[in-house]
Amino acid sequence: NAGVTQTPKFRVLKTGQSMTLLCAQDMNHEYMYWYRQDPGMGLRLIHYSVGEGTTAKGEVPDGYNVSRLKKQNFLLGLESAAPSQTSVYFCASSARAGGYNEQFFGPGTRLTVL
Amino acid sequence: AQTVTQSQPEMSVQEAETVTLSCTYDTSESDYYLFWYKQPPSRQMILVIRQEAYKQQNATENRFSVNFQKAAKSFSLKISDSQLGDAAMYFCAYRSPTGTASKLTFGTGTRLQVTL
User: Fold this and answer.
1) In angstroms, what separates the C-alpha of B107 from chain A's closest C-alpha?
2) By three-state DSSP, how is residue A90 classified?
3) pLDDT tens digits for B5-42?
4) Which among A103, B40, B65, B100 could disulfide-bond with B96, CB atoms 3.0 to 4.6 Å apart, if both were Cys?
5) Hey, which residues 33-92 in chain B have their CB within 8 Å of chain A?
6) CB-side exposure of B58: number of CA atoms within 13 Å?
7) Which residues of B fall within a CB distance of 8 Å from A99?
8) B108 in A contact zone (CB under 8 Å)
9) Are the C-beta atoms of residues A25 and A93 closer than 8 Å to each other?
10) Is B44–A31 a contact, with Cβ atoms under 8 angstroms apart?
11) Phi and psi at residue A85, in whole multiples of 5°?
């Protein structure tokens, strides 16, 4: 049981390049999330999904796109990377059932845009 | 929108001593969930403890406990018998009741140093 995994762990891009971050979970969770973490700002929600085929905008969605074609995968895309997108990106997932709905996090991806 | 405030960017504690990390939040909801996450240098986010607003009893998990003051909208984390492995960033987080996709709102974090 791997939990939540993220690919890649590190990446360096040049301004204007594109890339896709992959998140996978094996817990059969309905909900999935993408966050970015910047110094002094905590984690901020970029996009999220409440089920296969659905996506929604979070707090800081500009410059990012997402897709959830399969329940276990949630992709985060940067079409034209900018230095302001240099950050650590975390994926998380949670079950839909009521209660605490704890979010389980992946190990993060450190992205540098030059 | 809910906000979460952690007013202590850094804290330091000696090994075996007790430390309290502060967290306040702003909400108009009556039921909600609060969490403390730990982020060690490995970057992995680890859930430390959680509390439901309707439960008056403070949550405890081994050496970790909370002081939940609903009227004051305060949710502090107490770490007893601090260990070197407790050194990490600690994030307080708020979650609205079911129906909001279980989204979390995080504070800006407190970096805890543990000294010998």
Assistant:
1) 6
2) strand
3) 999 999 999 999 999 999 999 998 888 999 999 999 99
4) B100
5) 33, 35, 42-45, 47, 50, 52, 91
6) 13
7) 98
8) yes
9) yes
10) no
11) -95, 5
d(C-alpha A74, C-alpha A9), whole Å:
16
CB atoms within 10 A of CB B70: 15
Strands B110-115, B10-14: pairing is parallel
- Do the chains contact at A94 and B102, CB–CB below 8 Å? yes
Phi-psi region of A42 (alpha: psi -120 to 50; beta: other; left: phi over 0): left
Query: Which residues pair with residue A4 across a beta bridge?
Result: A25
Given a contact cutoff of 8 angstroms between Cβ atoms, the answer to whether B106 and B89 are in contact is no
**Cα A21 from Cα A108, distance rounded (Å):** 10
Token duo for residue B103: 């989204």
In this predicted structure, the answer to whether residue A4 has a pLDDT above a threshold of 90 is: yes
Provide the β-strand partners of residue A33.
A48, A92
Judge whether B51 and B33 are in contact, CB under 8 Å.
Answer: yes
Residue A22 has pLDDT above 70, yes or no: yes
Closest residue in chain B to residue A107, using alpha carbons only: B44
* Tokens read off for A83: 């230095």
Instruction: Measure CB to CB from residue A40 to each of B35, B104, B108 and give the nearest one.
Output: B108
pLDDT (tens digit, 9 = 90+) per residue, A57-86?
999 999 999 999 999 999 999 999 999 999
